[in-house]
């Protein structure tokens, strides 16, 4: 899937020490994902290099190319039952 990073997303990756490879892995092979109330897709992936913390990646799939909106480690992320 082709996608690009928003300026905000790139700034957040740098600020939060998140690699683009982790973001791409979360999108391509998520542990789980869902559509948010905002219409954006939310992807979650455990990152072994960060003690298994869940990386939360938000993308806007309604635009072309798909845009990575932001990414952050989400302490409150819970896998859906």
Description of the molecule:
The chain is α+β, with helices and mostly antiparallel strands and 81 residues long. It has a domain at 45-76. The protein has two helices and five strands. It has helices at residues 7-16, 20-28; strands at 3-5, 32-35, 41-47, 53-60, 66-73. Strand 3 and strand 4 (53-60) form a beta hairpin.
Q: What's the end-to-end separation, in Å?
A: 27 Å
Relative strand content? 35-45%
* Secondary-structure content class: alpha+beta
Total DSSP E strands? 5
In sequence order, what are the helices and strands, one letter per element?
EHHEEEE
Low-confidence runs? none
Overall pLDDT metric: 93
Give the overall silhouette: globular
Which radius of gyration do the C-alpha atoms yield? 12 Å
How much helix is in the residues? 10-25%
Largest sheet: 5 strands, mixed
Task: Give me the side-by-side strand order of the main sheet.
Answer: 1-5-4-3-2
Number of helical segments with 4 or more residues? 2
């Amino acid at each position: 899937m082709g996608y690009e990073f928003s300026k905000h997303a790139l700034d957040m990756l740098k600020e939060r020490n998140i690699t683009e490879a982790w973001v791409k892995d979360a999108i391509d092979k998520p542990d789980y994902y869902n559509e948010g109330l905002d219409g954006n897709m939310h992807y979650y992936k455990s990152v072994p290099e960060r003690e298994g913390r869940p990386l939360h990646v938000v993308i806007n799939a309604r635009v072309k190319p798909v845009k990575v909106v932001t990414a952050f480690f989400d302490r409150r992320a819970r896998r859906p039952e």
